[in-house]
Amino acid sequence: MPLAFVLFNVETGAEKEVLDNIKKIPEVKASYVVYGVYDIVVMVESGTLDKLREMITKKIRQLDKVSSTMTMIVMGD
Fold it and tell me: Among 11-15, 63-67, 73-77, whose mean pLDDT is lowest?
């Protein structure tokens, strides 16, 4: 199954709210608040690469209080 890691920058103080909303997305397999350049790291998995891209574009990147994301699609095992 296609797998990706998505790194989030969110509005200051909104980390918990965004994380709670991220956890409601069925394709999210793991999610963490982190300290450093990014605020949240999420691992997502979907049935096909097209479904993975669509889910990231339509569900994850559209969440309220998300300033920016960086997606890293995992290639191979």
Answer: 73-77
